[in-house]
Amino acid sequence: MALLTPQGVKEVFQFQKPEGREHLRRLLNWKEFDELRDSRRSILLDTLYDSIVFAVGKGFPWVEVAKVVKFTEELLKETKGCSITEAVTILGNKLRDYQGQFNTTHLLALCDYFHNTVIRHYKLYQYVLGQDQDVKLTVTHLDVCAPPQPLPLAEGKDREVWKHEQQVAELSAAEVQKRTNVLLLKEVLRLEREHLLQQTLSAAPVEQALKREELENLISEAIHVQIECLKELLQYEIQITFDILDLKLQRKTLTLNAPIPCPPPLTSQPGQDESHKSPKANKGKKAKAKKK
Fold first, then answer.
1. N or C: which end of the chain has fewer CB within 10 A?
2. What is the pLDDT of residues 180-206, one digit of tens each?
3. Which residues fall in a compositionally biased region of kind Basic residues (predicted)?
């Protein structure tokens, strides 16, 4: 590994974790790698970074912090493929090798740290760092649509006022739809009436003159068709008229109970007009009163 300097590990610790990890990678002379595809290198970098945080937290001098990183990398490399018994033996031998580089307190803290991390989770470390992983990664690119730009606050409306306007608009639209339905029905009944009259006339004999009784029946049937169409139209118009009146009543009720916007519009109070008039106008009034 590249030998870290005390100043280097100090800079790593002073950064936030993402920037600190990246700075540590550069100090170790590692090439850039994909965090998702190369999980082994990513976890190893995390382990080295955590050893710096541990050493600083325990009050190690910066010189010793750099040695802790070196100690960590050597331990992970030397225990690769070993049993847990062999790993404990290797850890004890390395602690003896570094005995002259740390004081007793820091050496014990270092022993506890690796016992509670690497040794306690040894199989996990071996599984992740000791063998190649078959990574199956699916990457999906999604387009993120930014929300629309909100309107200025000056153009905003009170929620209750907006709801009231929506209700009034819905009633107005319903009234327009009712009137449109009447026009559509008139057109449908007109076409149906013409069709029925055509059927009635086509049933009469064309080549010979009609007898009085046949003519009367023909006229009677034509009048009956007209009356039935008008009857149906009149019934529908009456119902639509009641419906429209009901919609008008609802709209009028909503208008009378319209919410007051917040803040309410400024209106002049009685007596304010007099107070806002110019002093000259007030003097003129007083002079006229004296003359009287």
1. C
2. 888 888 888 778 777 777 776 666 555
3. 278-292
